[in-house]
Amino acid sequence: MIMCVGLSAKIKKIENGMALVDADGAQREVSVELLPDIEPGDYIMVHAGIGIAKIENTEDVTDAQ
Amino acid sequence: MLSETARKSKEIIQQNKTPLRIMEVCGTHTHEIFRLGIRNILPESVKLISGPGCPVCVTPENFIDEALFLAKEKKCIIGTFGDLVRVPGSGMSLEKARAQGAEIAVLYSPLDAVTLAEKNPDKEIVFLSVGFETTTPAHCLAVIHAKKKNLKNFSILTANKIMDNVYETLKDSTDVYLYPGHVSVITGTGIYDSLKEKNISGVVAGFTAEEILNAVATAILKFKEGKPFSENAYTSVVKKEGNPAARKIVADTMDICTSTWRGLGEIKDSGLKLNDAFAEFDARKKFCIPEIPYRKNPACRCGEILQGKISPVECPCFGTVCTPRNPVGACMVSSEGTCSAFYKYGALTK
User: Fold this and answer.
1) pLDDT by residue (tens digit) across B249-278?
2) pTM of the predicted model as reported, rounded to 2 decimal places
3) Kindly report the CA angle at B259 between A51 and B113, in degrees rounded to 5?
4) Considering CB atoms only, which of A6, A34, A64 is closest to B243?
């Protein structure tokens, strides 16, 4: 659990500012309060338990850290 | 197998004859550049410097001493990211304090510390709020959640850093910065346009082999043009406007302050602390932490390494008394640290 690593994850569902995301098969809830325009199916960059950006080109998601 | 784009970038890099210093200021860049073998393909003309990109590495010893005070004297549960646990304070690390009975909880997110506080109403939970622009919004969000939940047993110990003034402080150590990808996700690229006006150049870099090679090749091509520049080579997530919602919650929650950087000393307007509206969540105020002076280990040369003045292998501690198993300096403790990377990939360094 180191601080700096960001990982890309796919949104499975969103409820009350929290999203269930899937990152290479690992699922967990993260806050998406800081991402206004996202929906299930989108890929986001997750850092320290919060979504910080929507990933625009999903072909870039492979091993982005 | 390199893509066509990556092959072209590699060609540009390897054909370069113009002397050029490139400083990366992101711990993940440090490690990915080593891990991907990118240092090995650089020509003699390109010098890659690892700057102060790891928040753990720039956190001063007395911050750990403050956390130890809270754990040992005030019996708080300390919530922290894992890479801070083994950082030596001036006396011991949190890991050693845990072995002596202190309660240290390694957590993935500051939001998990809020949950921990809810589950332990009879305990004080203090989360160690360390990080650059990328991580600070998560700390602020945790404080906002705690306030909404009216939690009285949650606070944070701040050592948050902002990079803006560091680029200017270290501008003579490099010709071009590889700007940190995830910091830039939050800040946007406007800040780099402002730096360009001050003759500071850089390229925002992503983290895959193709993205890093592209950023280095862009740095080489733009540097040859002889004018300051600001380029974004990580456009899939870094936008000009950054993440305004993240910046707003930081502005609503924290104030800019002077901050001490391990090895670099005090830098004006380079840190963040909770503002008056959230003072009840400031562990320094809540627990009246006494002022603990900043004392550095005189043998450790992390400070010069963080400024790119020396390579880790030039430090007499490196690989002898300072190893990942028994770290002396923070650059060896964190897996994002420069010394840790040099140690781990030592056979590949140049």
Assistant:
1) 999 999 999 998 887 788 889 999 999 999
2) 0.90
3) 40
4) A34
